[in-house]
Amino acid sequence: MSSRSALHPVPQAGSRRPLTALLATGALLCSGFAAVAVPSATAAPAGAAAPVAYIANSASDDVSVVDTGGDTVTATVPVGDGPSGVAVTPDGARVYVTNRGSGSVSVIDTATRTVTATVPVGSGPFGVAVTPDGGRVYVTNVLSDSVSVIDTGTNTVTATVPVAALPNSATAAPAGNRVYISSGAAVSVIDTTTDTVTATVPVARPNGLAVTPDGTRLYVSSQSAGAATVIDTATNAVTATVPVGNTPFGAAISPDGSRVYVTNIGGHSTSVIDTATDTVVATVGVGATPIGAAVTPDGSEVYVTNSQSGTASVISTATGTVTATVPVGSGPYAVAFAPAAAATADIDVDIAARPSLGLLVPYLTYTVTARGLGPDAVTSATVTATLPPGTTATGLSPGCTTTPGKVTCVYGTIAAGSGVSKTFRVPLHLLSLGAVKVTGTRTASSPADPDPANDSASATCTVVSILLATCA
Predict the structure, then answer these.
(1) Helix (H, G, I), strand (E, B), or coil: what is residue 386?
(2) Residue 307, CB half-sphere, CA atoms under 13 Å: how many?
(3) What residues of the chain score a pLDDT lower than 50?
(4) Which secondary-structure segment (H or E) carries 4?
(5) The pLDDT value given to residue 48
């Protein structure tokens, strides 16, 4: 029997054998499938919207989109055959998903949650990593012993890097100068300036990779050793071996670099490593056959994909307990986070005018309406109405003020699909005869208004005399 068949009894490209079946028979345990770790990130500001988790479901050929604020699936995106790896660009705009059976990478637009491109790569693509500048994506091709380099500007393969046999997981150094690849019996170091392998570090059946935020250490789950191997990235030497659970697989690191989370397939658990001491400080029970792991950008939670359970376990990093279990697709494998889309609220401004006969002074009544068209609620808005020069208004609604030639109205919360109106009057004796045009314009609002085309409206009246006016 060849060394390849002994180490890698995995299905060929196009196989439909479920991932759970491979795990149950032990075939996957010999394959070195990739569990993609999330790069470190700056903690989200207090009150920021919850990030979105993208979970590749290897047996149902789709990606679950999870709102981590409510731990619920909000969308399911069909991709290629056997999605196994997932990575998000730093700007959160795109998700790259490896399809092991299709020999391709699906590119998901996070705004529309649709596949906008499919990139052919090598045979059996598994792991995927995006460089910190978002310019390139590195994809491991486990059946062709290579790494495909994708230019994200064109979504085309610009280089193919030969690496050690059976490459699976991938992660990028924070500086972007290196990409680390775990293979059948070693970790390969790729110099991203030349796209060549500059070092190979022997590790017993490595899988998941997690690099510290300062880039000085690399944690590698060593499947056959039941441990996490620690590599000094300056010397490419192994400096420590941390015993974890049974059959460790995925690895992820907290944004502050203080904890590494390693999924243990055989123990249905996740080991928590203190990086200051390189010791396991907790073991958290999760679902059946945990594979991938990722830490939220604010470091508060860890998502672990449970392949045989069809779920994701949510671990609180503060308490070290599972706080939620999210049903996803079949055979969930890898997970990565994208920041929540910024809130937007489109405001439509309308203005209407009508003549009114007062007891002493006739006037024009103006109604300025701000309508929230969504998708989010308006939290605040300001609409400014321009009057004829030198004209001031009277009878203003609460929140409106006037200065010569201007009325400024401040609005509070406006729910999506609702409108709020404010009124003011302009006495006829202040106006010249003829056409009088008043324009209302949104001058400020929160959150951002994505469509300025409907931010302004006008009303025109004709003043016949100080006692008579008509409005269109």
Answers:
(1) strand
(2) 29
(3) 1-47
(4) helix 3-7
(5) 53
